[in-house]
Every structure is written in C-alpha cells, then in structure tokens.
Amino acid sequence: MESSAKKLSSLRITSLDGDDDETEDPHQPPPAGPSAAAADSDDDDEEEEAEVTLGVLSKPKHPGLLLRHLFPSKAGGIPAWLDPVNLPSGKSSCCGFCGEPLQFVLQIYAAVEDNVAAFHRTLFMFMCPSMACLLRDQHEQWKHKHGNPCRSVKVFRCQLPRTNAFYSAQPPKHDRSDKPLCPGAHVCHWCGTWKGDKICSSCKKARYCSEKHQALHWRTGHKNDCLQIISSSAASNSVLPTVGKVPANTFWPEFEIKIDYEGRFDSDSGDENNSKLLVMQRHGKPDAMMQSWMDQFEADSDNKCWASFQERVSRAPNQVLRYCREPNAKPLWALSSGCPSNADIPSCSYCKGPLCYEFQVMPQLLYFFVVGNQPDSLDWATIAVYTCQGACDQSVSYKEEFAWVQLYPTTTTRQ
Ligand SMILES: [Zn+2]
Ligand SMILES: [Zn+2]
Ligand SMILES: [Zn+2]
Ligand SMILES: [Zn+2]
C-alpha cells in the first residue's frame, strides 16, 4: 500500500486514511478518471518530468467534512488549524504592509513519508485581500536576502507526530463519530481565523484578533448583542456567533480541495472551446483584451512562456493548485520574466537548510473566490510556494515558509 499510495501522499493521508476511504464515502468520485487513466500512465514517456498532482475545488457534501480532525485540504472559509492551540499570532497573522489580519486562502494536507515528526503535516496560505499590498509584496520579495521583508502572502507549515495531544493515533472513521481530543484556542468572533486575545471590555465574552475586527463586529450587531449578553448572564453565549459561523463576507467561499493527476489528461485532448484563455475567464475578458495583454508582453520569451503555460493549464482547466514535492519539480511559470533565480529562494529560517518548491496556486482560484475586477481586486499569474526540504521541526508550531508571487505584466505597471 505504501508504494501505490506514494503519489497520493502529497494531498491525503496515506497511512491513516487507507483503502477504506472510497467505501466510506460513496459520493466521492475516484481521484483518477476511468479507463483512460491506466493506459495513459503506462505509456507516458516524459520520464524526466515529475508527475504533478492537481487540486480542484468542490463544494463539501456536508459542513462537517472539513473539520481539523479529518485532516482536510480546503480553500476558503476558515482554517482547520492542525495545531489548534498554538496559532500564529501578533505580526505573523497580519499583512506586513497595511497591518490588517490576513485572510485564509487554502490549506493542503501533505504528510511527509519517513518523517515521524511530520506524520501529519499541513500547509496554510493566507493573504491580504488588498491588491495594493500584493503589489508591494511582489516588489519586496526580491529583497529577501537582506533580512525578512514584509509580506502580504504568508504560508505556514504545521506538523505533528502520530502520537500527539490533539488527535487520536488511529485513523478517522469518517462516520461522523470522529472527534478531536481537545478544544482549540478561542478564536476571533469576527474572522473565526486568528486567536481571540482581545476581549470585549463590556460583555467580557466576545473575543477578537484585532481592533479592526472588534470594530466591524460592533458596527454589524455586537453593539446590541453586547447589552443583551450583559443583561442575560447565563445564556449569554448563545448571542455570540458560533465559531465557524462568522459573517460570510469576512472570508472567501469554502471548498474542499480534491486531487487529480495531470498525467491522466492527454496533452492534445484539450477541448478547444474549453481551454481557450481559461486563465482570463474569470474576468470575462474578450479575446481582443487578451490580445492587447499579449502585445504588452515585451519579450518573445514571455509570449512563448505564456503560450505554454496556457496550453499546460488547458489540459485540466479547473485546476487551482499544482502540487509536486519531488526533487526535480519546478513551478509552471506563466511568464519568463519575474521568475526567481536559485539565489532568490532563501534558506529555511528555522534550520537554515534548503527550501524546495512544493506547490503553486493558480489564478483560477480567484474565479472560485468570486474576486471582482475592480482596481484593488486581487490578481496574480501564479504563486509558488517553497518549503523546508527537511520538514524541520523546531521552535514554533507554525513555521513560515516562502511564497513567490508572479503577477501579470500589466498588473505590475498598474500602480
Ligand atoms: Zn495588506
Ligand atoms: Zn479577527
Ligand atoms: Zn461585548
Ligand atoms: Zn527547516
């Protein structure tokens, strides 16, 4: 089982989840398609290229599916913190530019085989929803060698051994009887994401990660609820929103990340209509607009790179994520300019060992997050994430990894 499940190890539990996964949830489609898949992978000649696992989004069948003790991979909503107690706090949880709390983008359950300290391992991505901050971030990322730059995109790695204080050492049964071993930290009543260290001075019940979220909550109802909480002592908790039922406009829509394999998509099977300019589709930009973008790409190499990016992505147009933790894996860059050189990738700030590429987030995610097309709406070509090769296990529970943001050329000059 170990070897056949090896490729799966990236995005799902292998040793825990095991073979019964398919039978537990009959609604879940198999990760790879029918007939074509088997023949394809055998005949594949591209040996030099590591197989890429794709992440695609689907609405969770029921809300309980993405809870932390089921070790989910998910996008949007609130994070299912792996270590539910020692959350990133202080400056770690805020945008380095505007200082506002970051918004949860996605998390990937990606355990590392043969590393007992990373029996469970989840990567979490957060981002400031302001495009102005992302633009500044994109400039700052080149300066990493000269000390820790400010970031508006942050990736945290959290890992646990099989025996730990938070979860059973036995695999989840997926029969809704699974429970975590202990409660998590109190989180902010507004964002449901970060630690709620600040307590409302009137009711002493509502908790917030920041003054901003306290103010937002106050204006949108807590002003009244607060009085109610004070006057009705016992039932007070019912007035506060349950964690996980925080106002929907404070986070992006929630999805489960399911996996697929790029290898099962034939390179020339891309449906012409389907594949055309999919990356642009969320903006509803017509071909003419696309052409004008293309014209603005200065170098031929950018055009070439863009064309091959488009071709590759069109094989599986719904991908929001590309994952590969093989030693020879590389991100699929949208443009040849704005790529990091080896020297631009820092070493691990905890163990000083090398970072290696692990996954990239595709612009299609913005479509699923219903991000608009206003001047300050988020936009990116791709975001590549590099993580500690040794999955080191030191100091803090949530270790910050390195993200490289690649923007479209027209976006970079928009400022
Ligand atoms: Zn910001
Ligand atoms: Zn908050
Ligand atoms: Zn209050
Ligand atoms: Zn390290």
What report would you give on this structure?
Pfam families: PDCD2_C, zf-MYND. It comes from Zea mays. Keywords: Metal-binding, Zinc, Zinc-finger. One of its GO terms (molecular function) is zinc ion binding. The chain folds into two domains: 7-31 and 49-183 and 252-412, no CATH class; 188-242, no CATH class. It is globular, with a radius of gyration of 22 Å. It has 415 residues and is an alpha+beta fold. It has helices at residues 21-24, 36-43, 131-140, 211-231, 272-275, 287-296, 300-314, 364-368, 409-412; strands at residues 53-58, 74-75, 103-109, 120-127, 153-160, 198-199, 207-208, 255-261, 321-323, 355-361, 382-388, 399-406. The protein is built from nine helices and twelve strands. The strands form two sheets. A ten-stranded antiparallel beta barrel has the order 1-8-2-3-4-5-12-11-10-9. It has a two-stranded antiparallel sheet with strand order 6-7. Residues 95, 97-98, 100, 128, 130, 133, 152 line the site of one zinc ion. One zinc ion is lined by residues 101, 188, 190-191, 194, 208-210, 213.
